[in-house]
Structure formats: C-alpha cells, structure tokens
Amino acid sequence: MHINSESSALDAYWMPYTANREFKRNPRMITAAEGCYFTDADGREVFDGLSGLWTCGAGHNRPEIREAVTRQLGRLDYAPAFQFGHPGAFELAERIVDVLPDGLDHVFFTNSGSESADTATKIARAYWRQRGKPGKTRIIGRAKGYHGASWGGISFGGIGANRKLWGQGMEADHLPHTLLPQNAFSRGQPEHGDYLADALEDLVALHDASNIAAVIVEPLAGSAGVLPPPVGYLARLRALCDKHDILLIFDEVITAFGRMGAWTGAEAFGAVPDMMGMAKQLTNGAIPMGAVAVKGEIYRTVVDAGGPEHLIELPHGYTYSGHPVACAAALASLDLLHRDGLIERAREMAPIFENALHSLKGANRYVTDIRNYGLAGALTIEAAHGDPALRPYQIAMKCWAKGFFVRHGGDTVQLGLPFIVDRAQIDAVINAIGEAINELE
Ligand code: PXG
Fold first, then answer.
1. For a pocket test of ligand 1, which of 53, 119, 146 has the largest count of ligand atoms closer than 8 A to its C-beta?
2. Does domain 7-58+341-438 have CATH number 3.60.21.10?
C-alpha cells in the first residue's frame, strides 16, 4: 500500500474524530513507537507530546507490558465475561482498589472511557431504583465536559461540536464550566470559581433532588482544553451532592493513574466521588480497557436487591469486560507505575513543565490563556477571522513537521507529556510550539 501519495488507498477507512478529507490529502501515518517517540511513514522520529491520546504515560512499547500480553495470549486468550471468571480480572480489581481513595472498593470493567461513563450513570439509576427512589433518573453534567461518544456521553457531555449533529439525546442538564477570564494564565488550580458549584442548587430548585440521580464531571476537564478545577470547587460540589442525596461521579479517564502527579484527580484535588470512571492509562494504552469503581454501599444496594441468588443483579456488561489480555496489560502497567515510581516522577516534572509552558505567555502572539496541572497543559489561541479552530490546527501541523505531536482541539493546543519525559524534551516541545505560533500568518 502506498501511504503517502495514493489517496485512494486511504478511502475505505472512515477515521474517528478526524478531518478525513484533510488527513487523506496530507496523511500523518505512524508506523512504530518507542519510549517518548513515534516513527512516521517517512522514518522520522516524532516526539509524542500527548502520550498517545493521554494513554501511554509510561512510554511506548514497554517490554514488561508486551511480555505480559504475550504470556496471557499463550495461556488464556478469552474467557466468557458473563457467569464465568478468570483470575486476572479479580486480581486487577483489587489492585485498582489499592490505589484509589478509601471507599471506592468495587470495580466494574468496560472497554473504553465512553462505556465507563455510560456504566457509571446506569449504575446510578439502578442504585436509586433499588433504594426505592425510581424517580431519581436525571443526570447532570457540565458545560465543556467530555464523557465519550455514546448517547449518554454526548447528552451529559458539554462540548457543542460533539452534540449538534445528533439532535435529541437523553435528558441531561449542565452545570456551568469553570473557564473564567479572571483566571487566565493561572498556574495549577485557578483561584476563582469555587462558587460555580452552587449552580447545582439552581438545578435542584428546578427539578427537585427527588428527580436527580447523579452529577458527572471530570475533576480536570481534559478534551475541552485542560481546565483544572478552581480551588475549593470540587469540595463544594461534593458537599452539595451530599446535602441533596445526589451521587457524584468523577470521570477520570484522563486523570487517573498518574497524569495529575497523583494516582487520581480525587487524590490530587482532595474530593472523593461515589463512583469513578477510568480508561486510557489503565493499560498504558496497549489494549483497550476501562473501569468504573464504586463505593461499597452502591455495590451492596444493587447486589442485595437482586432477588434469588441465581438471578443477575445488574443486567449490564460487555463481551470484553475484564478481557484476560487487557487485564494482563493493566497489571503489567500498574506494576510499572509502582516499580519505576512514575506517579512521583510525573509530580516532580510538573513544575518544570509548568515553567516551560508559561514561558509562552507574552512571548508569543495569539496566546490568550495557558493552563496546566500535573503533566497536562493547554494554550488557548485567539481566533483567526472568526474561526477558532484554524490556528490550533496550523500550530499542530507545524509542530508535526518539526517532529512534535501536539493535540489541537477547539481553540486550544494541548499537551499530555509522558511521565518519563525529561527536561530537554520539555524544552524542545515548548520551543517547537513557540516557533510554530511565531510562524503563523
Ligand atoms: N471521558 C473522558 C474524560 C475522556 O477524556 C472519554 C470519556 C471517552 O473515552 P473513549 O475511550 O471512549 O474514547 C474520554 C476520551 C483529547 C482526547 O485529545 C480525549 C479523549 C479522546 C480523544 C482525544 O482531548 N478522551
């Protein structure tokens, strides 16, 4: 197959979340990866500034994960997920619980972040029904939230571009987002905006808490362009959910397993949800897998109300829930995070990254905001002729040409550095972004 010029060879594949026409005219084909670098079809090494898609913090092609996957495939390739088990899934659930805040002590496996968001919100409704409150069905998300591409995710998600094509979704409401102009260029958690959590009171006044099942938010909004929570915001949201008997779900698909310089966003920001969705870094991106952790009371309520013991308590799950090969990859990945101290490493590198990223303030035209936490960061770029997406796209393409993969999304350029990144690599990617911005028309 010719991958550079013969666009007809690229026609059949309808690529996800991709500008298909542009890509097929200008393919960026990745053929190998090692550590912090991709190799492209021309044999160039390209620095991976997003850890895959926030997935590969431990670096690419780690032999420990590769070997665990190979071993597992040689022993047990698949076991039916329903009504039968295999040891890896039970071990992994325990190992996940070990690194989560106290209380989140049961784990349901999915295959993606979207399925984790769907699963958590379905469990929320099941929980209230089994507690004798079947009216509590409404799910509240947040503007600029991203919870995946399923009907649930696009409904309680809050990114307009991901919603407008589809029309009617499921019922959902949205809290206001936390991107305040007075917080521009904050380092780490912004100072202003904890009061934005109080908008939940308005939704309770509108619908009554007897109709509300759960609030779902990302502790740090990722896809919308790295929005760390204002100081005190998540604690305030937690207190309001407690006050009104509403479950709080953290979507930690990007934030869990090290990106925040802590095991979870809950740990980093000091607020514990009732349920937590995970994916991405769980297997270091090597095999698709997601998970939802829930508090014991939620598990017990649903399971104890399940009727006779031979009946299924929660008629929910996926053929590949807890897939043996995914479990093997996740166990090996968790081993690596522990053994190599990669959570601490991410925490140590975070201030170095913060300084480098914020050096782009003022030095460059068009940069209207810079945000960061842990090893996640983003720049907001001024719109060109009313098109907010154009300059971020141009910056990302210029970076790619210079040998750096950075993410462009909406009016932002985003970075999610590998936990194994070093100072020189941080400086190099920041310099490339700075140059790219200065080269804009
Ligand atoms: N929740 C959150 C918080 C996410 O970030 C999903 C759910 C959906 O996960 P799946 O595995 O179903 O795609 C995500 C995914 C980006 C980017 O660059 C982010 C995601 C996916 C692709 C790109 O911001 N997040």
1. 146
2. no
